Amino acid sequence: MGGNRKAMEWQAIVKNFLKQAFKVARGPVTPCPCLDCKNGSYKTRHVMEEHLCRFGFMPNYLVWHKHGEQACRRISEPAQQNRDGMMMDMLNDLAMGFEFDPEEDNQPPPKVQEFYRLLEAGDEKLHDHTEKTVLDTVSRLMAIKSKHNILNSCFNDITELVSEVIPSDHKLPKNLYFAKKMMAGLGMKYEKIDVCPSNCMLFWREDDKLGTCRHCGKSRYIQVKNEAGKNVDTMVPAKQLRYMPIIPRLKRLFLSMKIAKSMRWHKERRRGSQSEDVMVHPADGDAWKALDEFDPEFARDPRSVRLGLATDGFTPFSTSASPYTCWPVFIMPYNLPPKMVLKDEFIFLALVIPRPEHPGKNLNVFLCPLIEELKQLWTEVKAYDSYAKKEFNLRAAYLWSIHDLPAYGNFAGWSMNGRLQCPICMDDSDAYRLKHGGKYTFFDCTRRELPPRHKLRQLTTAFRKGVKVTKLPSKRKTAKEIMAWHRHLKVDPSTKRFHGYGELHNWTLMHQERNVAESIVSMCFDVTEKSKDNIKARKDLALLCDRPNLEYG
Q1: pLDDT of 428-459, one tens digit each?
Q2: What's the DSSP call for residue 452?
Q3: 3-class DSSP state for residue 175?
């Protein structure tokens, strides 16, 4: 592909090549085949045209395998070039989500400018004596910081030391601040939202300028006493909610061609020899099918995302330290195949709820930003599908939540105390209060779930003494029946529910089994502080059961 680069024929060849290259490109940049870059750097159309007219094509690049033409053999490349290529592929996927024209002379929007800076860092060498790029080095340093939980000050000391031992013409950021500023182009940002110290409200949106809570009157800031003995605000928030928006991350799933194709798996899969009665994916469940019936238009597009929400409290520090519990809230897209759906990279952290204790009934206050995004996703959000190579209207629906029973009460508004704490039986519960223990128990309340003629229903000594069970199994309430109970409550009319199934919450068996197992093991090994076996329990056993060898005294 040699010739006079000043001739009109050469310029026509270059324009024809650029037209073909960017026709099949996955974004606004593609490998530059000039003699200087040799397909090792990604350039925009304008820059590539300058390079080709200035340097010419790299030798022996006869099959445009990097620009859409099928090659009869694979071209071997150095390992570092492959690594840099993967990094640039990631940036190219990210760029497809931006709406801009690289040939326009107008100033690009800030997000696009951040992307261009990131692109330059991906092409710029760390210094003249290495093949490592600035972006590759900084991204690996940030990954090491996250993996080993390195302090910010420690990270700054490391970068300072590295800067001293490498050549002085290096491009390494001098501290964590500049490293984060460089990586900001990836769009992985989060919001800090001030919270009322009593969890009454968020200082967010129209309430962002308020200094005190509208409900309890407490200040949003930590207060200290001045010289006159009066409380003054320090402008340091008393409590903050960390919120990571999920819409950009859902849109980014479709920027990778491989993942975008996998997001259709639930609709385009082939069961093969598997029976229709075998549940291999949430798409086989009743909730998924009920949502499809409720909104056929939503179900028609295989890219419509079904979301699950999971949360639980945990102690981030050691148990010997002062007790502190925070509540992370995770979002999981269920469109992916089983081998991908529960991988770490597809479980999105949406909220980090801070509290020394659990948020309790005010959990809904912390969920407000997430709920607003879910409402927006239910209508539609513009996104780019790299598999179909076109824009589409992204929609998503909240399908269910996963948590233990105490969190179920906070999410669903169902009491987890007293006789009606079973979310299945509800008002048809057979729970009763222990005379000596004083607590409600469900002992021997499950025999009613057996078939009507089951022999265990007739036993009068194995369970409660003298009791035969004739009551029929409990029936699950429908969404309409549950809503009829709540007509007097204030409900947000913009929140849609599908009436055939309702909004059912799932609870994890792991937590329930762990609590039950802990009580059993503690009783067997006589762990006094955790065992449920005590004098009151033995007295109640004597009243309820025919087990004289276990009675107290």
Answers
A1: 888 889 998 888 888 888 898 899 889 999 98
A2: T
A3: coil
Q: How many CB atoms lie within 10 A of CB 103?
A: 9
For 372, the token pair is 């607003």
Torsion from C-alpha of 39, 42, 47, 48, nearest 10 degrees: 30
The amino acid present at 318, given as its one-letter code, is: S
Dihedral pair phi/psi, residue 525, rounded to 5°: -100, 10
Could you tell me the two tokens for 354?
A: 């801070």
Question: What residue spans define the domains of the chain?
Answer: 8-75, 191-242, 244-267+281-424+476-507
pTM value surpassing 0.90? no
Q: Hey, what are 367's tokens?
A: 């969920």
Query: How distant is the alpha carbon of residue 304 from its chain centre?
Result: 16
Burial class (CB in 10 A: 0-12, 13-18, 19+), 356: exposed
Q: To the nearest 10°, the Cα dihedral for 401, 346, 373, 409?
A: 20
Structure tokens at 316: 């981030």
Distance CA 6, CA 11 (A): 7
pLDDT in tens, 354-397: 876 667 778 888 999 999 999 999 988 898 888 888 889 999 99
Burial 418-440 (b: 16+ CB within 10 A, else e): ebbbbbebbeebbbeebebeeeb
142 residue type, one letter: M
Using alpha carbons, select from 193, 182, 278 the residue that is nearest to residue 240: 193
